[in-house]
Automatic annotation (TrEMBL), chains A, B:
UniProt xrefs under Pfam families: NUDIX, NUDIX-like, Zn_ribbon_NUD
Domain Nudix hydrolase: 282-414
Native organism: Rhizodiscina lignyota
InterPro entries given in the database record: NAD-cap_RNA_hydrolase_NudC, NADH_PPase-like_N, NudC-like_C, NUDIX_hydrolase-like_dom_sf, NUDIX_hydrolase_CS, NUDIX_hydrolase_dom, Znr_NADH_PPase
Family, per entry: Belongs to the Nudix hydrolase family. NudC subfamily.
Name of the protein in its database record: NAD(+) diphosphatase
Region (Disordered): 1-24
Gene Ontology MF term list: metal ion binding; NADH pyrophosphatase activity
Length: 445, 445
């Protein structure tokens, strides 16, 4: 949220030319630059209202422009740490079958059999900067899907293992850990339009984040929290429903092994049926993360966890609790972890964080005059929390940033402050503070 | 987030004097006023790190300063639409027993019996402006709990019905619907300190919201989404765990009716055991709600749902989807529902919304120059969406606001625009816009 020219002190990625340079410049002058954090800035139009439209999904699934992201145990298929591998319909057909969308959603629910394994698929959206399908209403773009090929069920084991081997033979592999933090993003770039600057190569992180969040949510919630019975994926991966009936032969006493019965069995009642319940929809956990400045705006509070490398600090963070505003959650977390009392709190920018399902809400807060004494004794989560001068933080942003498992740059000297990389919203918050978010009055809103 | 003096055009509630008027004035001059929306501004310190401390909870439960909010089927016990009824330990003792915290959490999990009904209790926090308990570390305040007395199980039915009758005899009752929107709040007031201005009478809405959100979450999630087995409430109502064993005699074949077995039965494995899983913790759904201005800042986009009264409009709103930033969710929702394309989006303020579990993230967005044409044909959720002048909205904020089931004020004339009341964040967003959030450059950050 800062357009301060001092931003240029930090290394900037080469950005593609905006599609409408005049408009870009005009909006920048008027409103400043929006900080688009890593994992945001998706080039896809999700066309969420088409997720129940199975004729559309069938058409999109088999189109020659369609791209498939492949996951095995939530690990994405990559060509390198900076490049996702996009598979084709021919690749996934042996796993998903000819067309999982050939019947309507209503019919599939009626035919529900809890013992049938269906590989999870997600319709991610249309990449409108790429040639692709065109709908009656005029939505255009190349369809993107995600498919879980984990060989976890007998019915797909052979096909999935063959597919995985064929990928390995091609030299592509499933990425362990969080290497995908290296995926290119449109870092720091304002996206004025929904899909104005779409560029698949520079937005891989956002597409990956959507796929990972949804595959994880589906895998984590095979049962209904309201009644305990197995649930069924609908709405192209964006909803799980608790069907009223089940063709599973396991439920029919005396018919085990006798194949699928002619009629489904009624399942016990469930409070999520016939109503709109949040249990049916993907979960996203709001998380607050905040740069705290001293009352005079000249120092920044940072904390560190015991497991981090020596000299590494970051902003404080924590989950928002039920019935808190963001501003209250920021004050509570900071007081619990550091004893610092905050007055004014301003939301700076936000970041999707698909590990597994977080929304990072970045804020900047100012300590009250008598609230600056550090006390780690409330909720002892941190090994240390202390105040740093703006100059110390500015220098560390210049020479001391890196991923957690990496070394800082060549100019960093042993003993100097280390900070998270630019892909972390913590870094963006600190950058805004040292560049004048508070002292130049940007915070006065 | 606006300190614009034009705020005074709207009726302002009488606010209590701030505890530190000099500081208040100083911070206001420097940072402006924070919009504290209805349901926020809790006077309670949640002391979240004490939720597993059963000796503390036992002490708090039976203290003479302790207050209990009573709910029946999620309806709160009230004396009037503007006053919660606070019950005592003596009232709830027949339902909850002498001390549900007499054993450690670890022991209670070991003794778990899925057929035992335990009325849901929530420890809400300490009201630090009121005399109460004092902990070793020095936390002070009057404890607040919520208790669900719904007579839904044989084991408490008689006691619960007797308690409900005793309340009715006293003239207090369980509030239907959302009458509690009439509860007093510290509307529009900045809370500089965690608990600086605590005032139980003016913060009832925030205390109620915390209780309702947590009771609802517990009631809605009796089963584990990971394995389908019943779960058990721990952490004073803020966590549900999936115990590894169960003393339920229902699980022992041949022992039905034989009472509780000597040893518990092992339950099937569950992916949430031995790890930290979000399934164990309360869910809060991030929701975006936004005032959209035209590119020149002179008009405001409002929409209406079919079921609303004639002439009633509001800001657009919708759920944030997985792996979206708030800014992206705002642009997507506005485009889906109205066809309008937004450029710059700024977060304004946030509001807890306990129906059942929402966090309303209020934003202000600006249309792009060629993105101002309304199109209701993407996701046809709205009956209408159209542009209004700032003057129309300003006048409606003055004369046309009310709750959905109420009539607007005496100055409203038939056919005039109607808008939500000040307790709705929609109203606060519109108020900020007509008071210069965009045109006076407040948005330029």
């Amino acid at each position: 949220m800062t357009s301060n020219s001092e931003d240029k002190r930090l290394p900037q990625p080469e950005l593609p030319e905006p599609a409408h340079p005049d408009l870009d410049s005009m909006l920048s002058r008027k409103f400043g630059k929006e900080v688009a954090n890593y994992f945001s800035g998706s080039p896809l139009n999700r066309v969420s209202f088409l997720r129940q439209d199975h004729p559309f999904l069938s058409h999109a699934l088999t189109h020659h422009t369609t791209t498939f992201l492949i996951f095995n145990k939530l690990e994405p298929l990559v060509e390198s740490p900076t490049k996702l591998h996009y598979a084709t319909y021919a690749d996934v057909k042996p796993i998903i079958g000819d067309d999982p969308y050939s019947k309507s959603e209503e019919d599939l629910v009626k035919e529900y059999n809890s013992t049938t394994y269906i590989p999870q698929m997600i319709f991610l959206g249309l990449h409108e900067d790429k040639d692709g399908v065109t709908t009656k209403k005029g939505y255009k773009g190349a369809p993107f899907f995600a498919v879980d090929v984990t060989p976890k069920h007998e019915s797909i084991k052979e096909a999935a293992e063959a597919l995985i081997k064929s990928f390995e033979d091609k030299g592509v592999h499933f990425s362990k850990g969080r290497l995908h933090m290296a995926l290119p993003a449109e870092e720091g770039e304002l996206r004025h339009f929904l899909f104005q600057y779409g560029n698949s190569d520079s937005s891989a992180a956002a597409i990956y984040a959507e796929a990972r969040h949804l595959l994880d949510w589906n895998a984590r919630n095979p049962f209904c929290g309201g009644c305990g019975q197995p649930t069924f994926s609908v709405n192209a991966g964006f909803k799980r429903t608790c069907p009223p009936t089940d063709f599973s032969q396991l439920l029919a006493s005396g018919t085990q092994g006798a194949g699928v019965p002619e009629k489904p069995f009624d399942r016990p009642s469930c409070p999520t049926r016939g109503v709109i319940s949040n249990l049916q929809f993907p979960r996203t956990d709001p998380t607050v993360i905040m740069a705290c400045v001293s009352h005079d705006g000249q120092r920044i509070l940072l904390g560190r966890q015991r497991r981090w490398p020596a000299h590494w600090y970051s902003t404080l963070a924590g989950f928002l609790e039920p019935a808190e505003s963001v501003e209250e959650a920021v004050r509570r977390e900071v007081w619990e972890e550091s004893g610092i009392k905050l007055g004014r709190v301003v939301v700076h920018s936000t970041q999707p964080w698909p590990y597994p399902a977080n929304l990072m809400i970045g804020a900047i807060g100012q300590a009250t005059p008598d609230g600056e004494v550090v006390d780690l004794g409330n909720d002892p989560e941190l090994e240390d929390a202390k105040w740093f001068s703006l100059d110390e933080v500015r220098e560390a942003l210049r020479v001391g940033t890196s991923g957690l498992g990496e070394r800082p740059g060549p100019e960093w000297r042993e003993g100097g402050l280390r900070l998270p990389p630019r892909t972390a919203i913590a870094n963006q918050l600190l950058t805004s503070v040292v560049n004048g978010f508070v002292s130049a009055g940007v915070m006065k809103i």
